[in-house]
Write a structure and sequence with these properties.
The protein is an alpha+beta fold and about 200 residues long. The chain has helices at about 15-25, 40-50, 110-120, 130-145, 155-160, 180, 185-195, and strands at about 65, 75-85, 95-105, 110, 125, 145-155, 170-180. Strands 5-2-3-6-7 form a 5-stranded mixed sheet, with helices on both faces. A two-stranded antiparallel ribbon has the order 1-4. Helix 3 (about 110-120) packs antiparallel against helix 4. The protein is elongated, with a radius of gyration of 20 Å. The two termini are about 35 Å apart. The relative contact order is 0.13.
Length: about 200
């Protein structure tokens, strides 16, 4: 990440690094001591990676589709897509898995592209409920399938490392569109395929 990467947002690399130094001083540290000299640069570079989703358009990943699938029109499910995100309330990590399913209407997309859609939304400041809905709506809007189902599991470090300090707790959210919402059999088949919390990891 270069100093000009976020100039369009009015923030330079140097300004971002100075903000890190301010936080270090606020925490009681001395940013000029040897062990912390390179910390501001490292933090800003890490942020460039963690929040690279703001520089991506998830819809572009779904632009290339395949129609020669021999008439396949059954459920397609990609489960256990690992993700790392950050909660927009405390900027703390959210770590978990996403399960995506869709019922194609004549065209399918490469499975790696579904994972890239997840990554693009995860690498932003997020609320898990919003991220779940964004992934589902993106797939629905671009692929126009008969239905989409998305289930997200997440462990929120804002709850495990601060506040109530409860570990081993995961949050599960879902978004069902089209046939996944309207047809109980399609929804049940999808949920059976992913078996949240039960299948081997």
């Amino acid at each position: 990440m270069t100093g000009s990467d976020h100039d369009d947002a009015g923030v330079s690399q140097n300004q971002a690094e100075e903000a890190v130094r301010t936080l270090l001083r606020w925490a009681g540290e001395d940013p000029s001591r040897e062990g912390l000299l390179d910390t501001p640069r490292r933090v800003v570079e890490a942020y460039g990676d963690w929040f690279s989703g703001y520089r991506e358009d998830p819809r572009e990943y779904l632009a290339r589709t395949f129609e020669e699938v021999a008439g396949y029109d059954e459920l397609i499910v990609l489960r256990d897509i690992e993700y790392e995100s950050h909660c927009e309330h405390h900027m703390a990590p959210i770590i978990g898995k996403v399960h995506v399913g869709y019922l194609p209407a004549g065209k399918v997309v490469g499975i790696s592209k579904l994972a890239r859609v997840v990554e693009a939304y995860a690498r932003r400041f997020q609320v898990q409920e919003k991220m779940t809905a964004q992934i589902a709506q993106c797939i629905q809007d671009v692929l126009h399938p008969l239905g989409v189902g998305v289930v997200v599991e997440g462990a929120h470090e804002c709850m495990t490392t601060r506040g109530i300090h409860k570990r081993g707790v995961s949050m599960v959210t879902s978004k069902m569109l089209g046939a996944f919402r309207d047809d109980a059999r399609t929804r049940a088949e999808f949920l059976r395929f992913i078996e949240v919390g039960n299948h081997k990891r």
